[in-house]
């Protein structure tokens, strides 16, 4: 049987690179790092549903990609046969969960992806009611704070905001590694890897509940592949998508090192028995 990890790798690589090439050839992507463009609707949002940030896939799935991935894995792990519920599988999940937190949420302060934006020339911007943008202290972006006219020290004396106006500062410019492509790539490869223990056993030996769990994992992999295509086709610059993909592959690759070491050790013992 072909290694499902290789199949998943070929699939996600093809999807990301083909959709990214499509976005370049047909000019369908929007540079989400540009503070003058990022807060505006996608130019294709009126004609293409998947080019809108409010599409259901983005709102209910992609934004919670690792949560969905974790749930699918944990159900599959819990319903699999006892001999496949190994600590090494759980360690892979813990490792990738830590990577998700470090890159997207917190790393002794700002997440690593946020640090990358700043290190490459980014800044914290807020969109004003006039359509202009204004830089504000980085802490507003790090804490995901909402800006109101009450912060009078930030605005000029002539600034007038509509009643109830609130601004949401965001890190822009710099190199914004696509967090979505990073998470989707990592999730696809992780779920494929976690299917391998089940696929070693005949389908007829699986408990009924585990059959449903495996089906859910496969469905989620298909969903993440489609999400990778829409993100690659309509959002981020080409380089930001490619670096997100590379980061996802490398992070997954780190979880494979212990297995490779073990396999090489076993192979060496067979070739040179004591």
UniProtKB/TrEMBL annotation:
Keyword Lipid metabolism: yes
Top-level taxon of the source organism: Eukaryota
InterPro entries in the cross-refs: FIT
GO molecular function (one): coenzyme A diphosphatase activity
Any GO CC annotation of this UniProt entry: endoplasmic reticulum membrane
Membrane protein topology class: Multi-pass membrane protein
GO BP of this protein: lipid droplet organization; lipid storage; phospholipid biosynthetic process
Location within or outside the cell: Endoplasmic reticulum membrane
Keywords annotated in UniProt: Endoplasmic reticulum, Hydrolase, Lipid metabolism, Membrane, Transmembrane, Transmembrane helix
Transmembrane segments annotated in the record for this chain: 59-78, 177-193, 214-236, 242-261
A UniProt-annotated Pfam family: FIT
Protein name: Inositol phospholipid biosynthesis protein Scs3
Organism of provenance: Armillaria gallica (Bulbous honey fungus)
């Amino acid at each position: 049987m072909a290694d499902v990890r290789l199949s998943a790798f070929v699939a996600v690589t093809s999807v990301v690179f083909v959709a990214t090439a499509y976005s370049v050839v047909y000019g369908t992507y929007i540079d989400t790092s540009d503070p003058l463009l990022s807060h505006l609707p996608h130019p294709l949002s009126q004609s293409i549903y998947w080019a809108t940030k409010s599409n259901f896939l983005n709102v209910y799935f992609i934004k919670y990609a690792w949560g969905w991935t974790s749930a699918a894995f944990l159900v599959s792990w819990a319903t699999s046969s006892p001999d496949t519920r190994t600590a090494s599988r759980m360690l892979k999940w813990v490792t990738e969960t830590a990577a998700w937190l470090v890159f997207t949420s917190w790393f002794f302060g700002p997440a690593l992806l946020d640090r990358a934006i700043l290190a490459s020339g980014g800044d914290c911007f807020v969109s004003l009611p006039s359509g202009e943008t204004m830089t504000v202290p980085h802490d507003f972006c790090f804490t995901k704070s909402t800006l109101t006219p009450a912060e009078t020290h930030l605005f000029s004396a002539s600034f007038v905001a509509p009643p109830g106006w609130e601004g949401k500062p965001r890190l822009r410019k710099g190199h914004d590694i696509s967090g979505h492509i990073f998470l989707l790539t990592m999730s696809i490869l992780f779920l494929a890897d976690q299917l391998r223990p089940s696929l070693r056993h005949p389908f007829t030996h699986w408990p009924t509940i585990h059959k449903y769990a495996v089906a859910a994992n496969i469905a989620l992999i298909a969903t993440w592949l489609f999400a990778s295509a829409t993100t690659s086709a309509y959002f981020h610059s080409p380089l930001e998508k490619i670096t997100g993909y590379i980061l996802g592959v490398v992070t997954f690759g780190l979880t494979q090192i212990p297995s490779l070491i073990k396999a090489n050790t076993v192979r060496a013992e067979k070739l040179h028995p004591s």
